[in-house]
Design goal:
Structural class: mainly alpha
Shape: elongated
Number of strands: 3
Number of helices: 7
Largest sheet: 3 strands, antiparallel
Radius of gyration: 23 Å
Helix content: 55-70%
Distance between the termini: 55 Å
Length: 144
């Protein structure tokens, strides 16, 4: 098996060497040897780095992502956690779509003043709810 030098892993993954060293220190990836002072990685590290990037994009913490690898470094994805996160993303998409629509309305609103526009008033109420996650939980529970 051909080992990959930290520079090659960085080039192929787009992850800076300093980040690779940090990920190695916290156990997200593992160097398996050294060539001089340079860390060497198995090709599996490239797959792991792709999963780390995907996990970060989905909003998982590095600690959460570390738990998505088995002791052998192979992916061991917790399907239940992934479904919960997908549901959270669906809620975010819905909130962002509502916000987008409201902003477009306000930008094009024919009302003489935004304060006279019922849609703008609704946007203000939504903004308060977005600032206060506990309010969202209460509203969601009351609608179920």
């Amino acid at each position: 098996m051909k080992l990959l030098d930290i520079g090659e892993v960085s080039q192929r993954s787009g992850v800076p060497p300093s980040t690779l060293r940090y990920y190695d220190e916290i156990g997200l990836i593992r160097s398996v040897a050294r060539h001089g002072l340079r860390r060497q990685f198995e090709p599996l590290a490239l797959t792991q780095l792709s999963l780390v990037a995907l996990g970060k994009s989905a909003g998982f913490s590095l600690q959460d992502i570390a738990g998505m690898f088995g002791a052998d470094g192979q992916p061991d994805l917790p399907r239940g956690d992934l479904l919960v996160r997908a549901d959270e993303i669906d809620r975010q998409i819905g909130n962002l779509a509502t916000l987008r629509d409201a902003l477009r309305h306000v930008a094009e609103c024919p009302a003489p003043s935004h304060m006279e526009c019922p849609s703008f008033q609704k946007l203000l109420r939504l903004a308060k709810r977005w600032r206060d996650p506990s309010q969202q939980s209460k509203e969601r529970a009351s609608s179920e």
